[in-house]
Amino acid sequence: MDNQRPEIVTIDNQAISHLIDYCRRHGVAKLALIADHNTYGVLGQAVEAGLKAQGLDVASIVFDTPEVVADARHILQIMVTVDRAPRTYVAVGSGTLTDITRFASWRTGNPFVAMPTAPSVDGFASLGAPLIVEGVKTTYITQAPRAIFANLDTLVTAPRAMIAAGFGDIMGKFTAAADWRLGHLLWDEPFDEAIAQRTAAVAQRCTEQAQAVGEGSPDGVHALMEGLIDSGFTMLDLGSSRNASGSEHHYSHYWEMKLLEEGRPAILHGAKVGVATVLLAQLYDCIKALNRQDVSDRLEASTLPTRDSEIARIQAAFGDMAPAIIAAQRPFLDLTEAAYSALKQRIGDNWDEVLAIAAQVPPGQEITRSLQIVGGPTTVAELGLTAQEQVAAEQYGHYLRQRFTVRKLARVLGLG
After folding, report:
1. CA–CA dist 360, 356 (Å, integer)
2. How does residue 362 score in pLDDT terms, banded at 50, 70 and 90?
3. How many CB atoms lie within 10 A of CB 73?
4. CATH code assigned at 45
5. Distance linking the first and last C-alpha atoms of the chain
6. Are 170 and 228 in contact, with CB atoms under 8 Å apart?
7. Positive or negative: CA dihedral 218, 364, 193, 335
8. Are residues 201 and 348 located together in one domain of the fold?
9. How confident is the model at residue 123 (pLDDT cuts 50, 70, 90)?
10. Is 2 part of a structural domain of the chain?
11. Which sign, positive or negative, has the C-alpha torsion 105, 106, 107, 108?
């Protein structure tokens, strides 16, 4: 695993020149450019032409599928197209193309460089490559890019929905950081205070730039892109996505998997995360409203679901994907009555700390307002999803990761 930070990060209008300089300094003569038909048109073709004008060997893979998914099919297309010569891979695109390139370059033992075409996700600088494997969203820890060259003109002219999606992904850091704190407090999950503070600070800085982002100004888009990269750095420094991917991402992953399974059009990751963040912020609002007597009564009434009933829920929700999810949930499925009683006692004993964590999440109304300012969706209906699909994500999304989040806490407290 290579968790070294990118050597250089630029956000200006000289991305191609920076890439050429990088190749010259590092003696890079062979490259593999990965794009789709959209990103090739807005930047990839110019990158390819600029590199070839310098006499560099560029093997270009331009996906022509209507919808590019980070899955085995697209990774295999790279593997069978690019020769075995050592090459520096260049991802020209947003999150999905970067993740495909990240994984393919890692598996072939090659470095890669990221050239974002939209400020839409925070994964450019991270180690994780979230892929759909046999229908399940699974994150593989691979490698960070050696450099990130973002062309500001390209970012500013990106579809407004993608800019809003990047902002939605950043809003998710509020609930993700809070979930991470809960997991540490109540489930002994590994934790790093400095990383948690940095994660929340990124979200706060971008919130303060909501108006400029909504206007699509160069300064606003620059601030958003910087925030997305900084968020990626927190994951890179931690060596995990725990700090930046909580229950709001589990909702998003659930919806993504169901849409793919049913052959429905994809929805931008950050758009799903933004809406999920509103829902989770509202759940944190409910947590804040509970007094000690409420909590005591709810804990006393709470009973441990049986292992068989939990497995039946997972099987009903995920079908053929259930075995992998059951395996991931084993620590929760294997809880004994004594362990569940100890968990309830721990929640009650630490309720003041739980409230302090919840207080770090802005109210749901504030998250909603910020997303509206940038033009992002705030309800499942705006995503094209149904109320039933919202309920399903609330009931089943938490099964996708072995983490204790506010959704796990809500189940113990009988909050739905």
Report:
1. 7
2. very high
3. 13
4. 3.40.50.1970
5. 39
6. yes
7. negative
8. yes
9. confident
10. no
11. positive
